[in-house]
Amino acid sequence: MVVKNQTHKIVILGGGTGGTLTANRLRRHYRNHDVHITVVDQDDHHVYQPALLFVPFGLAHEQEIVRPRHRQLHKDVEFVQQAIDRVDLDRDTVVLEGGRELPYDVLVVATGATLALDETEGLTGPGWNERVFTFYDLAGATALEAALADFDGGKLLVNVVDLPIKCPVAPLEFCFLADWYFNERGIRDKVQITYATPLDGAFTKPVASERLSTLLAEKGVELVTEFNTGEVMGESEDGTGGKLVGYDGRELDFDLAVVVPLHSGAAYVGRSEGLGDDLNFVPTDQHTLQSKARPNVFAIGDATNVPASKAGSVTHFEGEVLVDNIIRFLAGEPLAEGYDGHANCFIETGFGKALLIDFNYDTEPLPGHFPAAVGMPLLKESRLNHLGKLMFQWVYWHALLQGRDIPGIGTTMPENGKDHPTDRTHEEITV
Amino acid sequence: MSTATMAGVEVRLNEEGFFEDPTQWTEDMAVEMAKADGIDTLTDQHWTVIKFMRKEFFEKGTGPTVRVLGKTSGVSVKDLYALFPKGPAKMAARIAGIPKPKGCI
Ligand SMILES: Cc1cc2nc3c(=O)[nH]c(=O)nc-3n(C[C@H](O)[C@H](O)[C@H](O)COP(=O)(O)OP(=O)(O)OC[C@H]3O[C@@H](n4cnc5c(N)ncnc54)[C@H](O)[C@@H]3O)c2cc1C
User: Fold this and answer.
1) Residues 6 or more apart from A299 whose CB is under 8 A from it?
2) Is B59 within the bounds of a domain?
3) Given CB 3.0 to 4.6 Å as the disulfide criterion, which of A192, A284, A330, B86 pairs with A304?
4) Residue nearest to atom 31 of ligand 1 (CA)
5) Dist. CA A423–CA A420, nearest whole Å
6) CA-nearest residue of chain B to A360?
7) How many domains does the structure of chain B reveal?
8) A309 in contact with chain B, both atoms CB, cutoff 8 A
9) How far is CA A268 from the centre of its chain?
10) What does the domain layout of chain A look like in residue ranges?
């Protein structure tokens, strides 16, 4: 056996939520001469993405939600600003655009999800950023702010093309906030809001789906289900409105469309033989976060194919398990099956209120309280949850990205405080 | 769970009519199920999709979504809807005798 003091090279692809918190956690664990940590990202603008929801309504602005990426990283983490060209799994090497190579002992894929705008016919054609928008990136959210401000009435259509998408509740939140926004402007009665989803209900999980459908109805938002967008026509022949055409032939007219486009993994994943699946997500063990591609390749956050929401909270909970397993891997120990699919999302419902949902691979979002019997109400509108959502930006920059545990919020989902359907009558759940 | 007789054989189905055990499936059953769903004859293109879905299921443990089917089966999403009007992933999975493809969360 050879025992020598070697410095392990850990390369982290992506300096967003997952890459940053992983780098900072690892850096705190290891001494500098034990591991060298490199984070690669194509740009130096870290966007607090949950706030993109608020930008169209003038409730958040670019300068408050963007910070330099390198500044969020521990000073002893190397930051390389360059686009990734591909990963050569057989040579344990990352190739950057321009040709620079980064060899690794352990690789972490944290390059998130990208918007596959081109995959939907007509989406970026006539009317794009004039009558057809997305709020899923900063440029789109900013352009939409101006368009909403100019909107004096008509049909607002909110559409999710297909899952998976980041933060699957965000399009619903957009509807709730639009209801509030047009109320504030005194023109709610002139605006018809429609939510068209490919799902057979408002959300993927039954109890929450029912609660959210009720909320949509209460706020006068029309719900169109099982709508599979085939084509976006952003301009009609007479130049007035546009329409979405479903694959089944159904048509939905709009004056303003807010479309959440298809998501894929980063394009370089597709160029890296053996790394990704058909949608460029990385097949990953859902409990250990080790990739199926190679034992020394791990993945976190939106880049993986694990059956959890693509959310910052998921990324945060995964971070602790991932870092523990990288440490085990480098020490030659077996990995821990520590991740249970825990997700925790605030759902902004407008008028200064929000809902909270908490769930994992096995337990769907249920009513009750979080994190225990006394705490924030689950699946129920409250001001406390809204304040929680607002406070989260502070927590994100100061605790989550730093890779610190958030007091009172553990990696595994708390059972305590949840009311399972058998404990309650059906009626109580939907109040 | 329930049982149904297809092509003279008793098969186990879940509440939504998907096969509990994909190995019970035969091509004759597919023809019967397609008829019941309004597809009078299964064309070569239908069979391409059905066989592709079964292959994916046995390799990966879950059937492909419509989007993945459109990218990998050689049949475009538009054509998939023409072939299986009630929603390609669900309808084709049922006829192919595999469980409903796992949706995303
Ligand atoms: C509108 C919206 C609202 C949201 N709301 C919430 C919410 O309320 N709660 C919640 O928990 N989550 C929310 N999310 C989701 C959350 O932001 C993401 O799940 C989280 O940021 C995922 O982290 P990540 O590290 O996987 O990806 P990201 O943080 O997106 O980081 C990926 C990084 O990889 C880089 N990259 C990609 N390709 C390359 C390449 N080829 N070369 C170099 N670098 C590359 C990118 O530049 C990026 O910095 C929301 C997202 C959106 C869009």
Assistant:
1) A108, A109, A110, A282, A284, A289, A291
2) yes
3) A284
4) A16
5) 5
6) B105
7) 1
8) yes
9) 20
10) 8-112+266-330, 117-263, 343-429
Question: CATH top-level class for A8-112+266-330?
Answer: alpha beta
Cβ distance of A279 and B68 shorter than 8 Å: yes
How do the pLDDT tens digits run along chain A, 431 residues long? 445 568 999 999 999 999 999 999 999 999 999 999 999 999 999 999 999 999 999 999 999 999 999 999 999 999 999 999 999 999 999 999 999 999 999 999 999 999 999 999 999 999 999 999 999 999 999 999 999 999 999 999 999 999 999 999 999 999 999 999 999 999 999 999 999 999 989 998 888 999 999 999 999 999 999 899 999 999 877 777 899 999 989 999 999 999 999 999 999 999 999 999 999 999 999 999 999 999 999 999 999 999 999 999 999 999 999 999 999 999 999 999 999 999 999 999 999 999 999 999 999 899 999 988 888 889 889 988 888 888 899 999 999 999 888 777 888 888 888 888 654 433 333 22
Residue A105 CA: distances (Å) to CA of A18, A27, A329, A371, B28: 19, 16, 10, 38, 53
Q: Which residue has the tokens 């982290």?
A: A12
Architecture of domain A117-263: 3-Layer(bba) Sandwich (3.50)
Catalytic residue, candidates B1, B23, B104, B105? B104
- The answer to whether the CB atoms of A308 and B105 lie below 8 A apart is yes
B25, amino acid identity = W
Atom 50 (ligand 1): residue with closest C-alpha? A50
Amino acid at A318: E
